[in-house]
Amino acid sequence: MKLNDLKHLYKIIHTFLSYGIDEVLPVNSYTRAMRYGRKLFFWIHNQHKDKAFGLRLRLALQELGPVWIKLGQMLSTRRDLFPPEIADELALLQDQVEAFDGKIAREQIEQALGGNLDNWFINFDEKALASASIAQVHTAIFNDKQDLAGKEVVIKILRPNIQPIIDADLSLMYRIASWVPRLSSEGYRLRATEVIEEYEKTLRDELDLRTEMANAIKLRNNFLDSPMLYIPEMYQEFCHQNVIVMERIYGIPVSDIEALKENNTNMKLLAERGVQVFFTQVFRDSFFHADMHPGNIFVNPNHSDNPQYIGIDCGIVGKLNESDKRYLAESFVAFFNRDYRRVAQMHVDAGWTPEDTDIDAFEEAFREVCEPIFAKPLSEISFGQVLLNLFNVARDFNMQVQPQLVLLQKTLLYIEGLGRQLYPELDLWDTAKPFLQDWLKEQMGVKAFVNKLKQKLPYLQEHLPDFPETLVEALRQQKLINQQLRDISKKLSLQQRWWRKSFALLAGGMVFLGTLWQYPILPSSLSAVLFLCSFIIWLIGFLLP
């Protein structure tokens, strides 16, 4: 381990100990070495004893910097693993860090584009518009040499030398995660290594800005000319692994309620459209923006009576297959119908839980957890909390929750919180119900059959002319296979006959020889009987088919 690595490790240890994070270590034989090791750092004391553990954890991660901040943000979504007092604190982590030098940003952008910025842009602002843990953004304007002359843009650039920092921190995270199962019996339930693997995948995706570009293009095309959602345009010819250039937008931050009201925004319609956008992405497109926290959502100020969302930062998206969508739709519909038997059976039918799952016990577990939720009016029930409850029950019956479903649940919680912040009287069930019911109808009956036939039509058109020839060839092959099977059966039959004859002749011969050998000893009557038996066995051998 290099000197810089040791310094980095010491900083992490110092931060965790100074916030008293070590105090949650259980006292058992597995943690004895750690507790003794803690005494070696006797000069580092908990300096925040008056604060709750969740707050101390958040402050520690914030102090450790970008990679740990993003880990905390991801962990805040895993309410299936952490209690609310910790998850709520981690959700407050802000991905805002000090910007790096604008001159360095300019140099890296020019290196990626292959020339001086003045070749394409004017008014490049070296002061960052915003700065986050992985990247920061600067503003500029296309110069008159470009087809889009005068168009304002935002240029996003990765932080310099971020890769070694991420590699070092991830390595340490994996080491810590490997210890977690040994700390207590509950340690295995946390599946710490799987959590870090999921985090690493997300982090690696964010290190290639072309992924964000591709996601933004797809989302933009999905909502092209939509009054509900606008995604800024990406200028692909200027997009690279560490630099992307996109349209600059102006909007009211969705969290600025006062500004929205001053702009006479239709708050009820805005809140309903947030839910509609989410369910449209999920059920129509199977592709949803999975990082829709308030910092990434704005409202177009020009359509206050017909409000339109503006979404940015598309680095994290979720993708669903038909099974995922059916799980979501049927779970919600069955839950609101209080049909817990259907919820349980659907999990087994979809293959989410083993086939031998005790459906009666499964149903009762869902009932015990979900029934108390109906103490609230339907309009106040949290969809995200319902999903979380379903996940928790299903996990006890050996269901492995998929990462895309966790992303979906996190996004749903964002949308719910946002909707009710904008319009407290929002009835999510009333808004979402048509999407769920319409989608389920589309999956069944004549309409579903016609839709699936339409999807297969290009394939059928391509292969239908070859069908007669293919059928004849298949029949010919089947005839050959049948003939080969008959030949094999005949050979097996001949072999069986040979073995039966051989056995009978051998048995008769052994009895005959045994009789000759014992002839002087045996009585004459018994010898005659044995000679007769050997003759009969021999005869049977000759007569066997």
Give structural notes.
The strands form 3 sheets. Strands 1, 2, 3, 4 and 6 form a 5-stranded antiparallel beta sheet that branches. The protein contains 21 helices and 11 strands. It is an alpha+beta fold and 545 residues long. It folds into 3 domains: 3-97 and 164-203, no CATH class; 253-443, no CATH class; 466-543. This is Probable protein kinase UbiB.
Break the fold down into its secondary structure elements and pairings:
Layout: H1 3-18, H2 32-40, H3 53-64, H4 66-76, H5 84-90, H6 102-113, E1 121-122, E2 130-131, E3 135-142, E4 152-158, H7 162-183, H8 187-190, H9 192-206, H10 209-222, E5 229-230, E6 243-247, E7 252-253, H11 257-262, H12 267-285, E8 287-289, E9 297-299, E10 309-311, E11 317-319, H13 322-336, H14 340-349, H15 359-370, H16 383-396, H17 403-422, H18 428-442, H19 445-463, H20 467-518, H21 524-543
Helix pairs in contact: 1-3, 3-4, 3-5, 4-5, 4-9, 7-9, 12-17, 12-18, 13-14, 13-16, 13-18, 14-15, 15-16, 16-17, 20-21
Question: Any key phrases for this structure?
Answer:
545 residues; alpha+beta; 3 domains; five-stranded antiparallel beta sheet; four-stranded mixed beta sheet; 11 strands; globular; cell inner membrane; ABC1_dom; cell membrane; transmembrane; transferase
What is the CA-atom radius of gyration, in angstroms? 36 Å
Terminal CA distance: 81 Å
Q: How would you classify the helix and strand content by structural class? A: alpha+beta
Mean pLDDT: 79
Helix content: 55-70%
Taken together, the total number of domains comes to 3
- Uncertain stretches of 5 or more adjacent residues: none
* Morphology call: globular
Task: Characterize the main sheet.
Answer: 5 strands, antiparallel
Number of strands: 11
Function: Is probably a protein kinase regulator of UbiI activity which is involved in aerobic coenzyme Q (ubiquinone) biosynthesis.
GO molecular function: ATP binding; protein kinase activity
Domain ABC1 atypical kinase-like: 93-347
Pfam family, one: ABC1
